[in-house]
Specification:
2 domains, single chain, six-stranded parallel sheet, Rossmann fold, Dihydrodipicolinate Reductase, domain 2, globular, nine-stranded mixed sheet, 333 residues, alpha/beta, 29% strand, 10 helices
Length: 333
């Protein structure tokens, strides 16, 4: 398969730390061009890492006819704008999550990309890790019996006033940044959509963004997910699945190390066993999936539906926190 020529809009820390180095080893994706609002930053990065082209603005990169697709790791509030600009330039698009700040904007992004005939994919990397495929196999095998509850905790400690996650105008706050993982993983495990949600939200007085959010997703028939995400707490993350016949712990569900096996713990009436999966780099697998879909012209409609359903839950949780009550998704959407 010919490598997909990828352009990057913004040399973010996330791109450098988690995406750039895995893609250097890819036989399906080539980082062909980078861009930054600082021409010097783009030039230095390209020269240092042997990238063929660099640009001092995102718009310049989008004019490059050799670039087939773009990766957008820009701040959340800029996603919709540059999805549209990339689609107008007929580039396929991988955009960091959340794809937009709400359902209305996210749906607009997908519709716009379809009208321009380009692929648009939200960068939810964790599902591409084989540990989550193993989780799904165990759940579907009914080894754990009927799944009743999924608990998720995800936190980090970020008190930097200049960080985009602490700026409300940039789409900052815990729910949009990491709450989306708690929601997505619960929906993935149950294979269903919640009927109603309830949320409690604490805002940081200085930053005016949500720094602590707890939520309940009700999947009916006694099935529910409970989660807490925090942006000013000791860094930790886990997902635990509770069934009528056993439990399953995903030790590091989302920021899994790429160079050591991922660890799952399964407990049933027979005993407890440790399962090790990998190692694998979910960012590499995610981008290669994207490239393969483009080369084979395979629609990403299931991923689009999943992204839209996830942001619906986010909107409903914000509404619940504001109103102090359960919010039924069918009444909102």
């Amino acid at each position: 398969m010919e490598k997909l020529k990828l352009g990057v809009l913004g040399i973010s820390n996330h791109f450098i730390k988690r995406v750039f180095f895995p893609l250097k080893s890819s036989d399906k994706v080539e980082i062909y061009a980078v861009s930054s609002r600082s021409p010097e930053k783009a030039r230095k990065f390209a020269i240092k890492h042997g990238i063929k082209k660099w640009y001092g603005s995102y718009e310049e990169l989008l004019k490059d006819e050799e670039v087939e697709a773009v990766y957008i790791p820009l701040p959340n509030h800029m996603h919709l704008e540059y999805i549209k600009k990339a689609a107008d330039a007929h580039k396929h698009i991988m955009c960091e999550k959340p794809l937009a700040l709400n359902y209305k904007d996210e749906n607009e992004a997908f519709e716009y990309a379809k009208r321009q005939g380009v692929f648009l994919m939200e960068a939810f990397m964790y599902k591409h890790h084989p540990q989550w495929k193993r989780v799904k196999e165990i759940v579907d095998s009914r080894e754990l019996g009927d799944i009743q509850t999924v608990h998720c905790y995800f936190s980090y400690d970020n008190r930097d006033p200049k960080n985009i996650r602490n700026v409300p105008e940039f789409g900052g706050g815990g729910l949009l940044d990491i709450g989306v993982y708690a929601i997505s993983s619960a929906r993935w495990i149950f294979g269903e959509e919640p009927s109603r949600v309830l949320a409690l939200l604490k805002k940081d007085e200085k930053f005016n963004v949500d720094s602590l959010v707890s939520g309940i997703l009700d999947f009916d028939q006694g099935k529910r997910s409970v989660f807490t995400v925090a942006t000013q707490a000791f860094p930790n993350q886990s997902v635990e699945i509770f069934g009528t016949a056993g439990t399953l712990l995903v030790e590091i569900p989302f920021n899994t190390y790429p160079d050591v096996p991922a660890h799952l713990v399964v407990r049933t009436g027979i005993g407890t066993r440790d399962i090790y999966v990998g190692p694998a780099d979910h960012y590499l697998l995610e981008f290669e999936y994207f490239a393969k879909a483009i080369r084979e012209n395979k629609p990403l409609s299931l991923l689009e539906e999943d992204s839209l359903n996830n942001i619906k839950v986010v909107d409903a949780l914000f509404k619940s926190a504001e109103e102090g009550n359960w919010v039924y998704l069918k009444r909102v959407f």
